[in-house]
Amino acid sequence: MIVKDRPYIGAMLRLPEITFPLSIDTIGKALAMGEEFDIHCLNTGCHHSSRLNLVALGQRIGFDHSCLVQDIASYFFCPKCRAAGRPDKRIGLTCHTLTREHSEWPRERQEWRQRVGRARADPA
Q1: 61 with 75: CB under 8 angstroms?
Q2: Which residues lie across from 26 on neighbouring strands?
Q3: Torsions phi, psi for 73 (to 5 deg)
Q4: Which end of the chain is more exposed for a tag (fewer CB within 10 A), N or C?
Q5: What is residue 60's three-state secondary structure?
Q6: 79-104 b/e (C-beta count within 10 Å ≥ 16 → b)
Q7: How far apart are CA 54 and CA 66, in angstroms?
């Protein structure tokens, strides 16, 4: 199913064209360049953090939406601070390349888990 006003929702995700000089300023460009974001609470003593799902966020607010923290902060809050009665909208973003376990090829991830499992099982 393809929605008329948002043709990227459906079987295929349509990423924007990358132009130079490079400016990663939208969610779509961040995805196209292989970036991911961690979102974290800035309140003293909390430091709650989580990985941001850019695909889900782009489908919700649009892949042409700005990915700057001041433009997407209104969509997020810290659940720990909200439960404790502290200000829950003090958030920050950290942008980095896809290096986490979910971005690796499945075979490489499985081989790594087997090596780690053997290392833990074999006492030295």
Answers
A1: yes
A2: 66
A3: -65, -30
A4: C
A5: helix
A6: eebeeeeeebebbebeeeeeeeeeee
A7: 12
Cα–Cα dist 13/11, whole Å: 7
Nearest CA to 69 out of 117, 37, 115 is that of 37
Q: Which two tokens stand for residue 14?
A: 């349509």
Which residues fall within 8 angstroms of residue 28, CB to CB, at 6 or more apart?
15, 16, 58, 63, 64
As beta bridge partners, residue 16 has: none
Q: Hey, how many other C-beta atoms are within 10 angstroms of the C-beta on 110?
A: 11
| Joined tokens for residue 121 | 């099982």
In tens, the pLDDT along 70-116 reads 999 889 999 999 999 998 889 999 888 876 555 555 566 677 777 87
